[in-house]
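Shapes recur. One chain:

:::
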Amino acid sequence: MQLVVARIGRAHGIKGEVTVEVRTDEPELRLGPGAVLATDPASAGPLTIATGRVHSGRLLLRFEGVHDRTGAEALRNTLLIADVDPEELPEGEDEYYDHQLIDLDVVTEDGEPVGRITEISHLPTQDLFVVERPDGTEVFVPFVEEIVTEIDLEEQRAVIDPPPGLIDDRAEVASSRDADGTGDAAGTGDDA
């Protein structure tokens, strides 16, 4: 199975290094020196990692055969793809690869069907499940333990405890009006 593990950014310096947007929880395993990675577009690779280092919080890689800034810049926006055994599991107990989560049925804690996970969206602050509902619409479920209470790979389901408004239109709207409805919305108390 092939998984996207990184996207090449801009060139760094003049010796062929590139910045990398990491898309794996295991960069030391997937992006270490000697790793051979397929690419998208395929014409850019395969690429073999010669060196890697962290500089100012960013991963920098240099590939065999790329020795200058021009060669590095030509790789910009290329996706790096690793071959992963589908039976391989992440090291952490509560960690999952995307391919393990795609197509899981999503149900509420009460057993009410919500839909099926069609995609995992990796955002800077958290991951989201893109869940396709039976009517074809999509709902986005934050992959946080307060909402996703259980992942059961044997039963092929994800159990969620959604807050009001996440999967239905029962959102609770906070009001700044007094309980009797006479207060002003700004909360100043002036009746100017």
About this structure: Residues 69-73 form the longest helix (5 residues). Confidence is low (pLDDT under 50) at residues 183-192.
